[in-house]
Amino acid sequence: MIEVTRLNGKAFTLNALYIESIESFPDTTIKLTTGDKFIVLESEEEIRTKVTNFYRQVQILSNPYLRGEEDEEE
Prior knowledge:
Blueprint: E1 2-5, E2 11-14, E3 19-24, E4 28-32, E5 37-40, H1 44-57
Antiparallel strand pairs: 1-2, 3-4, 4-5
């Protein structure tokens, strides 16, 4: 889960596993696999960082091949 902020300043928590796309129009829009869309104050880069940190926390990125470390010794 990641915390993001609506344009009105209210924070809410979003399940990062359901994020399908993040775009800047210039406002950052997050589209979920459910079809829901959220416009948030955070930049696209901030959202990507939060999602990556969440994935690491739940060990989705624990596989070295998923992290891009293909030359890591086994």
